[in-house]
Amino acid sequence: MPSYIVVGGQWGDEGKGAITAYLALKDEPEVIARGGVGTNAGHSVFINGKRYAVRQLPMGFMQTKARLLVGAGVLVDPEVFFHELETLKDFDVAQRVGIDYRCAIIEETHKQLDRSNGHLHDKIGTTGSGCGPANADRVMRRAKLARDIKELEPYLTDVAAEVNDALDEGKLVLIEGTQGFGLSLYYGTYPYVTSKDTTASAIASDVGIGPTRVDDIIVVFKSFPTRVGAGPFPTEMSQEEAERLGLIEYGTVTGRRRRVGWFDFELARYSAKLNGATMLALTMIDKYDKNAFGITDYDKLPRKAKEFVEGIEERVGVPVALIKTGPELEHIIDRRDVI
Fold it and tell me: Which of 30, 81, 235, 270 could join 262 in a cystine, given CB atoms 3.0 to 4.6 angstroms apart?
């Protein structure tokens, strides 16, 4: 498995961070690269009871043997970048990270516009991180690039060259996506979407590899999908129902309460198809069936949880290879060797 991409299949917040962190430690990739939009996406993971969250760096940071790369398609906020270097200094991140010199920069004016623009902030419900305006400036060919920021110079590299060289050498490369399929600028619930495509094809482009260089695509789904901000949500449940089920969550970046819905099989099938999924990951099955909490052997899953997994496989048409049964890294069932 020389290269694989992890992407979200719903509206973000699917648990991609936890899946990526598990793969980073389990498979020990030598290169971990982040594609996606930018700092408007937060990935979080629990390690030994402590929560870690990143918005700029790859979530696979805890794999201390890996080179950490931020692809050219990703927006960079220097303030967030240096904050995360400091926050994760125990993982020796600064010595391992590389930013593509072609990354566009999020400036303070972009953040101010994102927060003050009535259409973006009030109607669409953007995060206020400046990603939309920064991407607009990139399209207009007036954005600053990472190569223009002196403070970033020690970290600049050609990510596309590094990733392709690693593949040529037979190294394992893990590529992280951000957001989710339903937020894709092209295939999501426009205009309530992010500022670029979020499918696996776009993530591959973000880090500079062609489609023939991708061996597996893991699409992550959440047992109860959530959505932050405005936009259609066909299977949304009431806040009262979500509270009754214990499904109270808040966004990693915005802190806003997430809207919660029932699993949408139609969306999942379409998402898996357009992403070219070779396998699925299912998170928070312990919220669907509390008796599934902490189980690491598929055969020991309770019947309710198994029937849910099998129903997804049957209706989506792709095997569920990874199942998260709790918040900690070790709370996972890995079926990749039997599917």
Answer: 235
Q: What is the pLDDT of residues 47-83, one digit of tens each?
A: 777 888 899 999 999 999 999 999 999 999 999 999 9
Query: What are the tokens at 195?
Result: 């500022």
Residue 125 has pLDDT above 70, yes or no: no
User: Which pLDDT score is estimated for 95?
Assistant: 96
Supply 324's token pair.
């998260």
Whole-angstrom distance, CA of residue 134 vs CA of residue 142 = 9
Distance CA 28, CA 64 (A): 9
Q: Which of 13, 100, 137, 286 is catalytic?
A: 13
Backbone angles phi, psi at 101, to 5 degrees: -65, -10
Class of domain 3-334: alpha beta
Active site residue 43: yes
Residue 225's contacts (CB-CB under 8 Å, 6 or more residues apart) are 10, 11, 14, 235, 260, 261, 262, 263, 264, 267
Which tokens hold the place of 39? 């700092």
Contact indicator for 220, 243 with CB cutoff of 8 Å: no
What Å distances lie between residue 337 and 8, 66, 304, 334, CA to CA?
22, 23, 23, 8
Q: 114: which 2 tokens?
A: 């994102």
The strand pairing partners of 227, in sequence order, are 259
Is 83 tagged catalytic?
A: no
Cis, bond preceding 191 (omega within 30 deg of 0): yes
Pairing of strands 156-157, 226-227: unpaired
Catalytic residue among 43, 114, 137, 289: 43
Residue among 263, 304, 315, 294 at smallest CA distance from 323: 294
Q: Evaluate if residue 254 carries a pLDDT over 80.
A: no
Asked whether the beta carbons of 287 and 224 are under 8 A apart, the reply is yes
Q: Report the half-sphere exposure of 188 (CA within 13 A, side-chain side).
A: 28
Token pair belonging to 325: 């049964």
* Stretch 243-257: mean pLDDT: 78
